Amino acid sequence: MKHMKTTIVKLLLTLVIGTQSILPVFAETQAANSSEADEIAALRKEIAALEQKVDRLEELQSARQQTASSVQTTNQNAAALTVQSLPRVTLGANGFGVRSADTNFIFQIHGLVQMDSRSFFQDGGLNGNDDFLLRRARPIIQGTVFHDFDFNFTPEFGGSTVQILDAYVNYRFQPALQLQAGKFKSPVGLEQLQARQNALFNEHSLATDLVPNRDVGVLLHGNVFGGVFSYAVGLVNGNTDYNGIAANASLQDDRAVVGRMFFQ
């Protein structure tokens, strides 16, 4: 019995000693764990703060990129508007031209030059028969003002005299309703209406000598249904008509009505 008590006392002493030795280690472990947890929590807070900073920087960078893109787009649009608002100068097969950005004002100049060579092989050696002739030398000035008013001024420097061939203004109210005033080609002669640069020969046929050339007056004309039907009717000076009484100048009537219709 005494031996058992001694054994129990020894066990209790051993437990007490072991407990005293374990408790500090456990306490140290808990302290270490608590310190690590605090460090982890602090690191998480720092990471969260860094993530917020990164998010703010990304938002700021995105805003800067959008602003830069917007500024670039604005500059491009402004440059495009500036280019569109500037007059346009052209030089090509149709001559030299200048027009406003809205095409309300157009100025164009080009020309026509035609040479003629006259040679006689059996003229008996007469002087002056064989020569070169500047048949046509025409600077053609044409354009538009205030969008609806077209003009044409064509002098002739070829031949022996200088003259004005065309000098008129045309008001385009609509394609089917236009009014022209000045000096222009009479609509009677069909060959006369063809532009000389598109003609096959330098000279007109003899039939054109029987119809009016250019005349001064007013002309109402237009194209209907996209050109399927076109018309021209005008009041011009025409040829002198003495009504059979040449001596009485008061009966002179030098006005003429001219017109033509096309169906095509």
Tell me what you see in this structure.
With 264 residues, the protein is an alpha+beta fold. It is 33% helix and 36% strand. It contains two helices and ten strands; from the N terminus they run H-E-E-E-E-E-E-E-H-E-E-E. It has helices spanning 2-85, 190-193; strands at 88-92, 95-99, 106-118, 131-145, 149-156, 163-174, 177-185, 214-224, 229-236, 256-263. A ten-stranded antiparallel sheet has the order 1-2-3-4-5-6-7-8-9-10, with no helix packed on it. Strand 4 and strand 5 (149-156) form a beta hairpin. The longest helix is centred in the N-terminal third of the chain and has 84 residues, at 2-85. The relative contact order is 0.06. Residues 241-251 have low confidence and may be disordered.
Strand neighbour order, sheet with most strands:
1-2-3-4-5-6-7-8-9-10
Count of beta strands: 10
The profile of the biggest β sheet is: 10 strands, antiparallel
Percentage of residues in strands: 35-45%
**Overall pLDDT score:** 82
Shape descriptor reads: rod-shaped
The total of helices stands at 2
Q: Which blocks of ≥5 consecutive residues have pLDDT under 50?
A: 241-251
Name the helix and strand elements from N-terminus to C-terminus, one letter apiece.
Answer: HEEEEEEEHEEE
Q: In brief, what are we looking at here?
A:
By secondary structure, the chain is of the alpha+beta class. Helix content is 33%, strand content 36%. β5 (149-156) and β6 form a beta hairpin.
